[in-house]
Specification:
Blueprint lengths: L1 E3 L1 H12 L7 E4 L7 H4 L4 H23 L2 H14 L15 H8 L17 E6 L9 H9 L4 E5 L5 H4 L1 H14 L10
Parallel strand pairs: 1-2, 2-3, 3-4
Helix pairs in contact: 3-4, 3-5
C-alpha cells in the first residue's frame, strides 16, 4: 500500500485488522500520530496548531453538510492556502474534510475503535523535515530503522513530500519496491 496523510491512518487500520492482506507499506508523513509516544513529543504551541487546523476543517465539513457547501468550500480553501496545499483550488472541497469530522465529532461512528498499528511487514516511511510539527515520534523512526527491509527517510520538504521532492521520492520508492533495497535512514539520503 502507498499511503499519505489520512490515507495512512486508514491504511494502517486495514493492515492492523488484516495483516495477511498487506505485504509492504509505504507511508508518507503520518506515522504513529495516535500513539502516546507521539503525543508526548508535542509542545503546547504544536498542539494548538494541530487543534486549530483540524477543528477548522472538521467545522467546515459540518457547515457544508448542514448549512452551505459554498461557505464550507471557502473555509476549506482558505485553510488549504494557509497550509500551502499544492492542490488546485477548484479541486479542494468541503466534503474532503470528513476524516476530521470523524476524528473530532464522531461522524460515521468516529475513529475511537481504531487499532494501534504495529508494523508486521516492511515499511518505507517518508516525512517532510521542514514543518512546524511532525506526525511521528522518534520511537517510530527508531522502530522502522531497526526492522529488516524497513526505513524511515526524512526529506527536505513540507507535508507534500511526493510533490516537493518528487524525483528523490520516486527513485527511492522504485528502488525499495523493485530492487528490494533498504533505503538509508534520515540523514543518509
Amino acid at each position: 500500500m502507498l499511503l499519505h496523510d489520512w490515507g495512512c491512518l486508514f491504511g494502517y487500520e486495514l493492515a492492523a485488522r488484516h495483516p495477511q492482506r498487506v505485504a509492504r507499506i509505504i507511508g508518507v508523513d503520518i506515522g504513529d500520530a495516535t500513539s502516546p509516544a507521539y503525543l508526548r513529543t508535542l509542545t503546547l504551541g504544536q498542539t494548538l496548531m494541530i487543534l486549530t487546523y483540524q477543528l477548522w476543517l472538521a467545522s467546515a465539513w459540518l457547515i457544508g453538510r448542514y448549512l452551505s457547501g459554498t461557505v464550507a468550500d471557502g473555509l476549506t480553501r482558505l485553510m488549504a492556502r494557509a497550509m500551502r496545499c499544492p492542490t488546485p483550488k477548484a479541486d479542494i472541497r468541503w466534503f474532503m474534510n470528513v476524516p476530521y469530522a470523524m476524528a473530532w465529532f464522531g461522524v460515521g461512528g468516529g475513529l475511537h475503535s481504531a487499532l494501534r498499528f504495529e508494523p508486521h511487514c516492511p515499511v518505507l516511511y517518508f516525512y517532510g523535515e521542514r514543518k512546524p510539527f511532525m506526525f511521528h515520534s522518534g520511537q517510530w523512526l527508531d522502530t522502522l530503522n531497526a526492522a529488516p527491509q524497513s526505513s524511515a527517510v526524512g526529506l527536505s520538504s513540507g507535508h507534500w513530500v511526493m510533490v516537493d521532492q518528487a524525483a528523490d521520492f520516486e527513485t527511492q520508492v522504485r528502488s525499495w519496491l523493485v530492487e528490494g533495497n533498504r533505503v538509508p535512514p534520515a540523514g543518509g539520503v
